[in-house]
Amino acid sequence: MQDIRDIIFKDILDKKFKAFITPERYGCLSGVEDAYKQAKVIGIELELFYKEGDSIEKGKPIGTVIATPKMMAVAEEKIIGTLAKFSGIATAARKAVELAEGKVRITAGSWKKMPPVMKDGVRTAVVSGGATFRITDNNMIYLDKNYIKMLGSIPKVLETVKDIKDSMKVVQIKGCDISIEEETRQALENGCGLLMVDTGNIDDLNRCLAVVNELGVRKQVEIAFASGVKFENIKELACIDIDVLCIGKEIVDAQLLDMKLDVI
């Protein structure tokens, strides 16, 4: 089937035009490397005036495209799509970091749930916004509820990795089969280095913290909180004695930082 654009542009197929790329709101630019890769594949000339992670302003051009008419139409789909999605994620990550005011680390682990083709771009966008995509910078072994369920208990799971000395053991705390308090106690008594309270319930977090403080090991263990955290919760949670705040959908599912392509 013939591309309708070949018919529309038949009299100017080889003529080149220049267009500006302009954001429609303020934010953080991301997707730069992917955009240049797309430009090379399409066969257009792309010049971006800003680098990955730079702040960009509503209505102020961030780059230009030089292309023939059909390729200009393709660029509007692919280049704008790449920059708008990843810049939206980076902008959301930056907002979360700013709301936390340096009191806790912001991480967005939900990149793992994205389509494989997007994962690298999402991770880059998260970092460009000032957040992280891992709950710790250390080597780690994440022991989630399913590992615990299949092996029978937190102590049994931790027993399997006790000889791996160079990795932090992270235990997901859910309070499903036993209490939050007992899960916390079992994890701490068997070599856990980071407790991930993954319930979204602040009361559960406080119950976990009470056990940690009762055992006097707060300086020996890190504490993370996750599940359904919203931007409006960040300031309150950042004031609680935790190290990491995990925000998934609010960052990874952020709205596009919409942009337009205007031929000069």
Quick recap:
This protein has 264 residues and is α/β, with parallel strands linked by helices. The protein is built from 10 helices and 12 strands. Strands 6-11-10-9-8-7 form a 6-stranded parallel beta sheet. It has a 4-stranded antiparallel beta sheet with strand order 3-5-1-12, covered by helices on one side. A two-stranded antiparallel ribbon has the order 2-4.
Described by strand count, sense and barrel closure, the largest sheet is:
6 strands, parallel
CATH architecture of the largest domain: Alpha-Beta Barrel
Please name the fourth-level CATH homologous superfamily of the largest domain.
Aldolase class I
CATH class of the largest domain equals: Alpha Beta
* Physical arrangement of strands within the biggest beta sheet: 6-11-10-9-8-7
Cα-based radius of gyration, to the nearest Å = 23 Å
Helix-and-strand structural type: alpha/beta
Mean pLDDT: 93
The ordered H/E elements are HEEHEEEHEHEHHEHEHEHEHE
Q: Bin the strand percentage.
A: 15-25%
- Anisotropy-based shape: elongated
* Number of contiguous helices: 10
Please indicate the count of domains: 2
Distance between the termini: 31 Å
In CATH terms, what is the fold-level topology of the largest domain? TIM Barrel
Helix content: 40-55%
The count of β-strands is 12
List the keywords.
264 residues; alpha/beta; Aldehyde Oxidoreductase, domain 3; TIM Barrel; 2 domains; 6-stranded parallel sheet; 10 helices; 12 strands
Task: Please write out the topology.
Blueprint: H1 4-8, E1 17-23, E2 27-28, H2 32-42, E3 45-48, E4 55-56, E5 63-67, H3 69-100, E6 105-107, H4 116-128, E7 140-143, H5 145-151, H6 154-160, E8 168-173, H7 180-189, E9 194-197, H8 202-215, E10 222-225, H9 234-238, E11 244-246, H10 249-252, E12 259-263
Parallel strand pairs: 6-11, 7-8, 8-9, 9-10, 10-11
Antiparallel strand pairs: 1-5, 1-12, 2-4, 3-5
Helix pairs in contact: 2-3, 3-4, 7-8
